[in-house]
Specification:
Two copies of one chain form a homodimer. Chain A is an alpha+beta fold. Chain A is 58% helix and 8% strand. Chain A is built from ten helices and four strands. Chain A starts with a strand and ends with a helix.
């Protein structure tokens, strides 16, 4: 029986990119439905009535929403090239840090991106506090997953993708290589990985998009 | 080798209660460290430097934070009385709805109880919209986990515990049996379960605590 595998995503969603990379790592074939988030398809609204967001993975007619839930589903359904560690404690740590990334790091990076002057200095320092934890997690490892990219690397993929773009736009160095050598190395190693690089959203489009997102916050400075 | 298992919690934390119930269901012996959140112990701050919260589970010197991460760790480490379903799709659904509970249902319930006037009408409608999804999930089932209490039931334990207390304090009936028969039945079934009931925090103390928490909001109406 032919397996039905579809991914609803947008061209730029960092959350959907997690699923895109995971499916690539697992070597899975699937159909992409590209959504325009200003004009969501009926199918998307049917499959994700609660959040009305991407990504949504549909496997043999069953929809799964929320990118980290999707990653675990993919890992448990297709056993090749495991994304999560086998050990329950290591698995718990991966889940904990992924949640920390979404709940804390994402917010602190965004704040650093949209603020200016003294506020931005403080915001960058605040984000630095979060980065310190990540730096610690990378001790003795090339990736969060060890020698190869895993669940937690994919969970932080947005970080590797966006920090460079944000630095180009703001002219401010968000991740200082002297202060965070391991995290800086991780960003480069992740971004350089052929599987990852092949599927990055187009750089110039991302710069354009994030420039536009930053605009409303810039106007406030007289 | 003697196994070291400790749980840092407070007497009333609904998040810690998830872990208390999980450990009971699994039949595990452990040491409780009761925390006073106005005067956190050095150990708690050492074990949970990021959030400085309970619960924290310590297993043979390794610390795990975040209640839902702890539940999965417990389930993967001790295989008796499984809390999560075996099937990857059912597991994904349990994880999705647990996150929905924490991200959407919890704040909507709190807002419905503490807001007033038109705000409260809207908040009640919002909460009801969330309850409708839960009602659907219970279709044909006694518990979210099926015939027995599982991960998702424990994730929603706060709802079963606090709804009655808040209804008593505010006089607002939020979960109407006519409107949500399955959810109402679930609340009763969960609360009546001997394992659950035995470990509920003391009712009077909870009423007192939440009365104090609600006061500043309820006072606003002249």
């Amino acid at each position: 029986m032919a397996e039905e595998l579809k991914l609803f995503r947008s061209w730029s969603s960092p959350f959907a990119l997690r699923a895109v990379h995971a499916l690539k790592i697992k070597g899975l074939e699937y159909e992409t439905i590209l959504e325009d988030l200003k004009n969501k398809s009926d199918k998307l609204l049917e499959y994700n009535p609660i959040y009305k967001k991407v990504p949504v993975l549909v496997h043999n007619g069953k929809p799964i929403c929320e990118s980290l839930v999707i990653l675990e589903y993919i890992d448990e359904t297709w056993k090749q090239t495991p994304l999560l560690p086998q050990d329950p404690y290591e698995k718990a740590m991966a889940r904990f840090w992924a949640k920390f990334g979404d709940d804390k790091v994402m917010q602190s990076v965004w704040t650093a991106f949209i603020s200016q002057g003294k506020d931005q200095e403080e915001a960058i320092a605040q984000a630095g506090g979060d980065f310190r934890f990540l730096e610690e997690q990378l001790k003795g490892k090339k990736f969060f997953g060890g020698e190869t990219i895993g669940y937690l690397d994919l969970a932080f993929g947005w970080f590797a993708n966006l920090t460079g773009i944000m630095e180009v736009i703001t002219g401010q160095k968000l991740v200082n290589a002297e202060e965070f050598p391991l995290l800086s190395a991780w960003i480069n190693n992740f971004a350089d990985d052929p599987v990852i690089k092949e599927l990055w959203p187009p750089h110039y489009k991302m710069v354009e998009k994030f420039q536009a997102m930053r605009e409303p916050y810039l106007k406030k400075v007289a």
